[in-house]
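Figure 3 (text version): structure tokens given as input.
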């Protein structure tokens, strides 16, 4: 059976990446693409790399246009998807690539986003460990009808640290994460600080001092993995690469834990995973190695002098960080092979 799909926000980066991946998915037909200010334009005018979708025209983003599909992807700015979800009650599967349905806590939403709080949906990071039994989030995605795709920075840090939290080998009360991130994570709208002349040849920290919106999402994932308390100092740094995240996260080693037990925690968590790979000891990832792939590459070190575990994780923020995670979750929800339409291979050079 071929699934009819609508993608909102189709002229943006996240929507464009969802379309790029879906175009190679054998079980879907992209029937409808929508936008706001760009409605009425040919899709290819805004996504000129999507040559196989040149026949599509951007329609207005309204509940009426989005209704009547098997799957709807909402790739809209934070705070905008919630207005459509109630109207899509009859749609079998809705996947939100924005933040509106990620957070469990209304207080956390108020503190970091503001505006109307919407009910949390099933979180779309299949590889995360949740619960004391060591089960993975994919178990909750099977048969799901409403999925919240992750924040790219949040899922990268969570995938970095959850194995250590679940195994009890690190202390989640003193986590430090510094991320090098590409500007595509900020969306496609014009902003002075994202102009080429502003970012080329420099690195710029932003959302410093505990203000980044992905912090409660990370804490939520760590708590689900078994942390009684999760405290994180989180600092993203904008660097001149179009896409990619390189997250360096450290946490104290729990008392009495050996180096072998530390590495075993990550090996056990990811040894059987298709899209999250622990690199051999002494090796660390580059963002170039995950470009275009739905892959998270993880490097692990034990710093005994500082008594901390160091985890370095690279993802493509638009693929594994957003669109790839959404489609991987869609596959699980619908009972399709999890890797359908996705690749572990990056693009080089």
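Below: residues designed for each position.
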């Amino acid at each position: 059976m071929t699934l009819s799909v609508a993608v909102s926000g189709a002229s943006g980066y996240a929507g464009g990446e969802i379309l790029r991946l879906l175009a190679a998915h054998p079980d879907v037909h992209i029937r409808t693409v929508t936008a706001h200010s760009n409605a009425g334009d040919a899709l290819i005018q805004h996504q000129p790399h999507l040559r196989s979708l040149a026949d599509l025209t951007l329609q207005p983003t309204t509940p009426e246009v989005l209704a009547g599909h098997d799957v709807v992807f909402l790739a809209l700015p934070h705070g905008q998807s919630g207005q459509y979800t109630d109207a899509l009650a009859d749609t079998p599967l809705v996947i939100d690539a924005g933040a509106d349905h990620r957070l469990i806590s209304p207080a956390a939403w108020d503190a970091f986003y503001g505006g109307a709080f919407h009910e949390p949906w099933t979180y779309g990071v299949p590889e995360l460990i949740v619960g004391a039994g060591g089960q993975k989030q994919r178990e909750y995605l099977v048969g799901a009808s409403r999925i919240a795709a992750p924040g790219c920075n949040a899922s990268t840090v969570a995938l970095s640290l959850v194995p250590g939290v679940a195994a009890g080998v690190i202390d989640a009360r003193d986590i430090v994460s510094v991320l090098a991130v590409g500007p595509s994570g900020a969306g496609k709208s014009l902003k002075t600080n994202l102009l080429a002349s502003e970012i080329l040849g420099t690195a710029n920290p932003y959302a410093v001092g505990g203000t980044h919106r992905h912090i409660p999402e990370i804490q939520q994932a760590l708590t689900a993995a078994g942390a009684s308390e999760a405290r994180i100092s989180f600092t993203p740094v904008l660097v001149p690469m179009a896409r990619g995240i390189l997250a360096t996260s450290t946490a104290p080693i729990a008392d009495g834990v050996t180096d072998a037990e530390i590495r075993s925690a990550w090996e056990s968590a990811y040894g059987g995973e298709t899209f999250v790979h622990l690199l051999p000891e002494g090796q660390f990832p580059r963002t170039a190695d995950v470009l275009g792939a739905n892959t998270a590459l993880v490097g692990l070190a034990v710093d005994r002098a500082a008594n901390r575990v160091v985890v370095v994780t690279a993802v493509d923020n638009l693929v594994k960080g957003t669109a790839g995670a959404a489609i991987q979750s869609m596959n699980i929800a619908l009972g399709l092979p999890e890797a359908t339409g996705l690749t572990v291979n990056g693009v080089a050079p």
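Residues 18 and 35 are 14 Å apart (CA to CA).
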